Amino acid sequence: MSEKIQIRILKDGSIEAVTNGIKGKQCVDYISILENLLEAETVRSSYTSEYYETEQQIQLEQSVQQTNTLHQK
């Protein structure tokens, strides 16, 4: 899965942003970037299940992906 940020602008002018494929605490780094780009201020935030994934899980996923890529060639 690739890293993505889904941004929705609602009818009332509020903005929702959801990260996908960004594991661990890295997603938090995008909050200030989004605030600057959207000229907005974070009012509320919550974590997806990906936030709680450990580095070990991430490394295992990357290893599996590399193995799959090798087998496809």
Key terms:
73 residues; alpha+beta; 2 helices; 2 strands; elongated; DUF2997; DUF2997 domain-containing protein
Explained architecture:
- This is DUF2997 domain-containing protein.
- InterPro entries: DUF2997.
- This protein has 73 residues and is of the alpha+beta class.
- The chain contains two helices and two strands.
- A two-stranded antiparallel ribbon has the order 1-2.
- It has one domain (4-72).
- The radius of gyration is 16 Å and the shape is elongated.
- β1 and β2 (15-20) form a beta hairpin.
- The protein has helices at 29-38, 55-72, and strands at 4-9, 15-20.
The count of domains is 1
N/C terminus separation: 19 Å
Helicity range of the residues? 25-40%
Task: Report the radius of gyration as a whole number of Å.
Answer: 16 Å
Oligomerization: single chain
Figure out the total of helices. 2
Shape: elongated
How would you briefly describe this protein structure?
This is DUF2997 domain-containing protein. With 73 residues, the protein is an alpha+beta fold. Helix content is 38%, strand content 16%.
Give the helix/strand layout:
Elements: E1 4-9, E2 15-20, H1 29-38, H2 55-72
InterPro entries: DUF2997 (IPR021375)
Protein name: DUF2997 domain-containing protein
Pfam families: DUF2997
